[in-house]
Amino acid sequence: MGRKVFVGNLSFSIGEAELRQLFEQKGGVESVTVMRDLDTGRSRGFGFVEMSTDDAAQKAIAELNGYAVEGRNLTVNEARPKQERRGGGGGFNRGGGGRRREPRW
């Protein structure tokens, strides 16, 4: 078990300060990140909290998974390592071969 916790189904109005305050009730918090859209800065509805110990992370998962905040039941579980993305598929100009593909209308 790691100390980093995934938090999903967040209200878009919840920021780092509110998330930290909630998780500090379960143990020490090292860092809090709410993931945001790069263009708008708006919350993407999920984030990560790094707890100070494995025990604090376990307690936060056990007690906050399904906990209602602003009418939404949080999804709280152990964060998994980021998967490497593979290129290709979906969208314009994502093919190989070095030539530009034009959209078909």
Helix content: 10-25%
Structural class: alpha+beta
Query: How many whole angstroms does the radius of gyration measure?
Result: 18 Å
Overall CATH architecture: 2-Layer Sandwich
Largest sheet: 4 strands, antiparallel
Strand content: 25-35%
* Count of separate DSSP helical elements: 2
How many structural domains? 1
How many angstroms does the end-to-end distance come to?
Answer: 50 Å
Order of helical and strand elements: EHEEHEEE
Mean pLDDT: 87
Any overview of this molecule?
By secondary structure, this protein is an alpha+beta fold. The protein has a single domain (4-78), classed as Alpha-Beta Plaits, CATH 3.30.70. Helices cover 19% and strands 29% of the residues. It contains two helices and six strands, in the order βαββαβββ. A hairpin with a 2-residue loop joins β4 (68-69) and β5 (72-73). The longest helix is centred in the middle third of the chain and has 11 residues, at 54-64. The model has no long low-confidence stretch (mean pLDDT 87).
Describe the structure in brief.
By secondary structure, the chain is α+β, with helices and mostly antiparallel strands.
Give descriptors for this structure.
105 residues, alpha+beta, two-stranded antiparallel ribbon, 19% helix, 29% strand
SSE map:
Elements: E1 4-8, H1 16-24, E2 29-36, E3 43-51, H2 54-64, E4 68-69, E5 72-73, E6 75-78
Antiparallel strand pairs: 1-3, 1-6, 2-3, 4-5
